[in-house]
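Here's what a typical entry looks like (DUF418 domain-containing protein):
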Amino acid sequence: MGILFANIIAFGQPMTAYMYPAAFTVPHSVAEDWMWVAQLVLVDGKMRGLFTLLFGAGMYLFLEKAWARGQGIWLQVQRLLWLGLFGLVHFFFVWRGDILFLYACAGTAALLFVGLPRLHQLVLGVLGYIGGALLYAGFVGFLPLVADGDLGQRPAYSQMATDLEADKQANLADGRFETELIAGGDYHEWVAHNLAAHGGDLVFNLLMSWFETLPLMLIGMAAYRYGLFDGRLDPRRQRFWGWTLFLAGTALTAPVALWAKASGLTYYGTLAAVVGWSMLPRGLAILGLVTLLSAWGQHARGSLVARIAAAGRAAFTNYLGTSVLMLLLFHGWAGGLFGRLGRTELYLVALATCALMLLWSKPWLDRFRFGPLEWLWRCLTYRRPFPLRR
């Protein structure tokens, strides 16, 4: 549900609008500029980070059960292969913000480290994440100094400034072209455009994400093995460290977001804020959130908690189902709302969709053993049908 609040902008507006408010096809108000700040501080990257940590923990849990049955690591490889195929279909035919293909590739790489002691997994994950944060800051963090500042006026950087402006205009033009295709209802041409113009994005995403996705998966594996999710840790210390990490990460992200707003939310300023400078404090917030939520989840009760748990058990269906629902809502051949809603309205769409997840997931799982896509994924992984009804 949190990931939807991050992704909803790129569902209903051009992909470039995710970071750059000026790419919206409708006016972006001052209040919505502050919403951009709040999203960077509270949401961006953190929900994906939680998803990635839990994916790593889930991989190790799956392997434990496979080992107990005398099965090996190749069952997990087969499971990830199917996930990657789901991701490719999602990327090219439903929504280009897919993360499943990346998870399949990074998860396969994580299997190389699955036999390490949990401390080694944790240290490798933390060092890899810090290295990635430094790498992203080095690649992206100084770009606004060239594109928006005086540095780009110097002869040594003038060509770089020209190239950055050309890249910016090319990305914005691609967003305008996609808007015409989607709003005009030309689905086949939109798919053809994805295949021709954005197939290489998959490779770029893989290259740029190894220093975030893979380390977080390793941290998730180690956290599971240390007992973060099953009550083996001291609850008082767990809450203390959870709040400390979360508040520290949030406090360190806020100046980055405020700087980007004070600088006018420029194209390269927002890129540097989201990708370059917030990754390290975001990591602290992710660890704090997963620590707090796991402590709360072990003792939480009530009907809302039961519905949240059910939505989580059907996370695969909810993730892909949301993309299909947004396709039907926004594309011109269906609902036709693409490019018509501002940030405020898009958040309301996300809120309504989260309510829908909570409404359907529990009644379904009261009657069936798995979510629809969870069941299909399981049957494909084990190459045999499983009973669906309880």
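DSSP finds 18 helices and no strands in the chain.

More examples are in the samples folder.
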